[in-house]
Design a protein that fits this description.
44 strands; 9-stranded mixed beta sheet; mainly beta; Immunoglobulin-like; 48% strand; 12-stranded mixed beta sheet; 3 domains
Length: 446
């Protein structure tokens, strides 16, 4: 009898345990599905640290700063080692603001990216036996997005094994070799590039049309005169400076230094115009052909395609600003060759109608600084920090109130004498303008 009770209790316990395990497994599976289904925002990694692309951040000891509102990753100058950058950010701009050198480093871009600015980027990627070795075999990798090098100076070296450069594959600038369907395209605009890789200098870009004179190889497009110097060693015992063409599946021999200067190109690109709603925005494009014809286009967001602007056939287009981020481009044609300008946009800005004015009060008095702006939805007052000579946001405390409104109230101190104040106003689109500064004079009567 006792043995039967024990068996019955054990059987009940096993049923309970199995039910519990199955229930927990269902919970885990459901959680996993929810986690996979959850939307993921834009982000980037520096080494193994993840950063939210909606937040601005500056890391001076690694030589970079990320500005979230404009999606700009700034290289600040200097020399640094052992860094891996990976960006899951669409329409990213990498601005080389000063000469910057990274030893044992690599950049990976998963969205459309532009590298620009006046500083020189020197990138050295090593593998294996080098103490500065990188975590990848490429210098710059465009993985699933187009890469534009615009008015930039790049010196990229990728070596797989520092002691035996012919050991294996390393690429200076590369697209995604495994997925031709992504159609990465490299566009070079008015830039100087030196690329050296033990397997290839510039490889595996798939987008674009092969055979047209504006393409150095399939997917490698040259917008205006640029110097492209390529060198590589020993991949499959092939020697000489070459660029790999994914359509012919062959390396194309090029001269050690090649200056690409097509007969026809755009010499002045249209620029984005920031203006108040209802004003006129004017875009201008110029080409080095006197007989060039032009056709302006705008991007129809509903149809998701570029549409001709009726009657817009000169090199200048004027439009009334009525839409934020409206996109325009121009087709320029000469001698049967057509080139497309860069995209220019309209940005609707708030309009400051009353600037803050200078004010002078006795110590301890309360004073107010005011601003008026059309279309403003946010305000942020700032003051010039005399110790650092930098503008800093005003925070509400015992001396300040209304720091994020159109009126800033100040309980004055003698130390505030000659303080400078200004206000940053922003509209619903996130576009902002900054007011003129005003001076606070605090007088002490004894």
């Amino acid at each position: 009898m006792r043995e039967k009770q024990v068996n019955k209790s054990f059987s009940s316990f096993m049923k309970y345990a199995i039910s519990t395990v199955l229930f927990m497994m269902m919970i885990v599976m459901l959680y996993g599905q929810l986690a996979l289904a959850a939307p993921r925002g834009e982000y980037f990694y520096v080494n193994e640290k993840r950063y939210d692309a909606t937040q601005s951040v500056k890391v001076s000891y690694q030589g970079w700063e990320y500005v979230a509102p404009t999606k700009t990753f700034k290289l600040l100058g200097g020399k640094y080692q052992r860094l891996s950058f990976s960006f899951h950010v669409s329409n990213l701009t990498v601005a080389v603001t000063a000469n910057t050198t990274y030893e044992g480093a690599c950049f990976t871009f998963y969205g459309n990216t532009t590298i620009t600015d006046q500083g020189k980027l020197t990138l050295r990627t090593y593998m294996n036996n080098n103490p500065k070795s990188s975590v990848a075999y490429w210098g710059i990798y465009a993985c699933g997005g187009n890469l534009t090098i615009d008015t930039a100076n790049l010196d990229i070296t990728a070596v797989y094994n520092d002691y035996n450069p012919r050991t294996n594959a390393a690429y200076a600038i590369t697209g995604n070799p495994e997925s031709a369907g992504t159609k990465e395209k490299l566009t070079i605009i008015n830039s100087k590039i030196h690329a050296y890789g033990t397997a290839g200098a510039i490889c595996d870009f798939h987008g674009g049309i092969y055979g047209n004179s504006k393409y150095l190889a399939a997917g490698i497009y040259v917008e205006s005169p640029s110097t492209v110097e390529c060198r590589y060693d020993g991949f499959y015992d092939k020697k000489g400076p070459q660029i790999y063409d994914v359509l012919t599946r062959r390396y194309r021999q090029i001269a050690q230094e090649v200056t690409i200067a097509r007969e026809f190109w755009i010499t002045q690109q249209p620029k984005t115009v920031s203006a108040v709603a209802g004003s006129t925005a004017t875009f201008t494009v110029k080409a080095n052909c006197q007989s060039a014809t032009y056709q302006w286009q705008y991007y129809n967001k509903n149809q998701r395609k570029w549409v001709n602007v009726s009657g817009a056939t000169s090199n200048t287009l004027s439009v009334t600003v009525s839409e934020n981020d409206a996109e325009y481009q121009c087709l320029a044609t000469c001698g049967g060759l057509t080139v497309v300008s860069l995209t220019a946009r309209t940005k609707i800005m708030p309009k400051i109608t009353q600037q803050p004015i200078n004010t002078y009060v006795p110590t301890g008095w309360t004073t107010r600084l005011k601003i008026q702006a059309e279309g403003a939805t946010k305000y942020q007052w700032q003051y010039m920090d005399p110790s650092t000579e930098r503008w800093r946001n005003v925070q509400d405390n015992e001396y300040y109130s209304g720091a994020t409104t159109a009126t800033l109230t100040i309980n004055t101190l003698e130390s505030m004498n000659q303080y400078q104040f200004r206000c940053r106003v922003t509209n619903a689109y996130g576009n902002g303008v900054t007011s003129d500064y005003c001076i606070l004079g605090v007088r002490t009567y004894r």
